[in-house]
Please model this.
Amino acid sequence: MSAEGGRAGHVPVMLAEVLAALAPHDGGSYLDATFGGGGYAAAILQAASCVLYAIDRDPQAIARGAALAARYPGRLHLIHGRFGDLCALLSDSGVSRLDGVVFDFGVSSFQLDDAARGFSFRADGPLDMRMDASGPTGGPTAAELIATMPERELTDMLYEYGEERQSRRIARAILRARAEAPIETTGRLAEIIRSVLPPDRSGIDPATRSFQALRIRVNDELGEIARGLSAAASMLAPGGRLVVVAFHSLEDRIVKRFMTEAAGRTPAPSRHDPGQLRPSPSPAFRLLTPRALRPGAAETAANPRARSARLRAIARLEISPNQRSAA
Model:
């Protein structure tokens, strides 16, 4: 989950570390693929005299960005859409190469704090959870999904996307409740979950993992991450950098696997595998973070939502003289 600062102000997580990994330079072209509250975007624009493109699937985020774009005329270009489609979105803006891309995955505090968006159980609201509820591309709401999903599919979703060990018990409770009346609000769904789960000793609300799972499913977040990483890497110029901040293990697992494979850090094949006789392709990237970076104690104390953040980064290798002569 993204850790932005809600109505009190946008608080981008691990900002110093993101800027150090991205290393924006004058004349460069960059992409903030998850614009959100604009915290990273503002810092990048301030750090270098560069051009920045910013994507967000939430039209409200794009509308909020107008003030920042006005502060940097001609340098910040806001684009409404899914970051999984970033190649097509940037092509429409005449962009074919980037010097850096930053992702901050998850739902923002602007979305969590707005009860009408239906992301959070902390305030009762319609059970929606769509990051983009505009037009026919918004897809089904969370309420529509749980009204129609069979018990097995609901159980699997809660287990796989929420890592919820009590997924079967929760799914059965949801089916019993929806047989009595449609589940249409965040408050009712949270109460159904709490009715069958004991309070967590860590203090985490019992509904947390289920709400995470449902949000991921509604927005196809993991599929979007895989598509976005591949698209971003394909657009990086030599020396260009891809920087990702993830907030839970499902996201980070995808990022880690993608980056280690891009950097040629795949496990060695078995000596009994004939495939090992074929030469491996040279990696196109190098790891900038052999291990994920974590926020410091001061940051997590000031912003508890940052505690689960993990930062990983790769850079496209420069073209060698031999590659240039062969081109």
User: Anything to note?
Assistant: Residues 1-9, 320-327 have pLDDT under 50 and may be disordered.
